[in-house]
Design goal:
Length: 81
C-alpha cells in the first residue's frame, strides 16, 4: 500500500513540526563571517601571487605537463628538459 501526502509549509514551519532547532540566526552570523573572510582573501589576491601559487617554478610546470601529454600520445618515454 502506498500513501502519498503533499504538505505545503515554510521551512520554519517544517522545523517546528519536526522539533528541529531554529538555526537561522546562527546561519546568518556564519554567512556574514564567511563573506567577510572571502572579501579579505579577494582583496589580497593579485595575478602575480596567484601564478606563483599555481606554478611555483614559473612555466616549468606547464612544460612538464606538455611533455607528459606529448610522450603519452606518441609513445615516447624520454623526458625533454
Amino acid at each position: 500500500m502506498k500513501i502519498k501526502l503533499d504538505i505545503e509549509c515554510t521551512p520554519q514551519e517544517a522545523r517546528v513540526f519536526f522539533g528541529l532547532p531554529d538555526v537561522e540566526k546562527m546561519q546568518e552570523i556564519m554567512m556574514k563571517e564567511i563573506q567577510s573572510k572571502m572579501m579579505e582573501g579577494i582583496s589580497n589576491i593579485d595575478a602575480d601571487s596567484m601564478m606563483k601559487t599555481w606554478m611555483p617554478e614559473g612555466m616549468k610546470g606547464l612544460d612538464q605537463m606538455q611533455n607528459m601529454f606529448w610522450s603519452s600520445m606518441t609513445g615516447n618515454k624520454t623526458d625533454k628538459k
